[in-house]
Amino acid sequence: MNMLDGMDVMVVSYAAPNISKDWSVSPQSLGVVFSAGLLGMTIGAMFLAPRADKFGRKAMIILCNFLMGISVFGTAWTNSVETLMFFRVISGIGIGGMLASTATLTAENAPKATKDFWVSFVMSGYPIGAVLAGLVAAKIIPLYGWQSIFKVAGITSLITLPIVYFFLKESSDFLNEVTTKGKTSVINLLSTEYKKVTIGLWIAIFMAFATLYFLTTWIPKLASATGLSVELAIYAGTVFNLGAFLGIVSQGFFSSRFGLSKTIFVYLFITSLLMVVFGFFKDSFLILTLFGLIGFGIQGGFVGMYSLAARLYPTEIRATGVGGAVGVGRIGAVVGPLVGGVLIGMGLSMTINFIIFAIPPILAGLVLLTIKTR
């Protein structure tokens, strides 16, 4: 399910250069399209994911997968920015609900001693899906047009529905421990007991998401601006997400041994350093290598926040807690690509863009150091 999430998020980025050429749209217009999907993810995480605390994690995953499949498939027939935005909002709602539900489901079925590792391991499916989508996009878009990648992604999502229905196990905590099925809301996260940690988590994840989605959204276009070929520019996103997979898995491993907050801080600090020096390299091999290392750091760091959210809240509001954090983070994800589009449209160099977006990760890491987990 997380592989499908990664695929459905990234397909629009891989198709963006061709859409821009076919429709003659500006970077600012594409920024609005990217942010439309992220707005949908915010809605899904904050308002759909909390329903998993009432109806179950499995039911929510099935619903979200259906929304993702039909909307991504329908995107192949869009012919305007407005219709593209509509389908990205719908797919975003499914994606936002999916991430929170899968993180919660994993946390509630994993052994306590290695919970952080397993949550991160399952979340690592997200960049793997993005990598596979990038590999497919690089081959089929030049031959069959940008519409083809949306058809493939949509069909792939829909054909997994019966597999999930018959084989996915519901959360044992949800089935055995939740006795009250009252109304759940992100407002519960701001009660006296959880207010301080919730606000800290939200600030950190907002800043991390802003930088992450600036990178994932604009990497192909930024890479092509360095002189890389169109195919290599697409592979830049693939390398970024391959690095992300390694970063997420290793972060889960180290978090189980040294603590979540400290590990996340180190990953985000390294990311900021890499982004500051990135713009000074022009060699194609070094550029691709740095993309991979930046993906390693930023994805490894921010996915650790899912584990953090799962530890901060009890079973009865856990999906709401994870969804609330993801939802607030998605607001940052909306802001990141919009600001990136404006900066690129203004003609600011890639070096300056990367330095600007190196600031939020280090601030996020510092905030997380103040949060104590159970």
Q: What does the model show?
A:
The protein has 374 residues and is mostly helical. Helix content is 81%, strand content 0%. The protein has one domain: Up-down Bundle (Growth Hormone, Chain: A), CATH 1.20.1250. It contains 17 helices and no strands. α1 runs antiparallel to α2 and α6 crosses α14. The longest helix has 31 residues. The mean pLDDT is 86.
Taken in chain order, the helices and strands follow as HHHHHHHHHHHHHHHHH
The biggest beta sheet reads: none
CATH architecture, please?
Answer: Up-down Bundle
Derived structural class: mainly alpha
Q: What is the oligomer described by this structure?
A: single chain
Indicate the proportion of strand residues: under 5%
CATH T-level fold name: Growth Hormone, Chain: A
Uncertain stretches of 5 or more adjacent residues: none
Query: Average pLDDT value?
Result: 86
Quick summary of this structure?
The protein has 374 residues and is mainly α. It is 81% helix and 0% strand.
Task: Set down the secondary structure blueprint.
Blueprint: H1 2-23, H2 27-48, H3 52-55, H4 57-75, H5 81-109, H6 115-123, H7 125-144, H8 147-159, H9 161-167, H10 172-176, H11 195-225, H12 230-258, H13 260-278, H14 284-312, H15 318-345, H16 350-356, H17 359-368
Helix pairs in contact: 1-2, 1-5, 1-7, 1-8, 1-11, 2-5, 2-15, 4-5, 4-8, 5-6, 5-14, 5-15, 6-12, 6-14, 7-8, 7-12, 11-12, 11-14, 11-15, 11-17, 12-13, 12-14, 13-14, 13-16, 13-17, 14-15
Question: What tags apply to this protein structure?
Answer:
single chain; 374 residues; mainly alpha; Growth Hormone, Chain: A; 0% strand
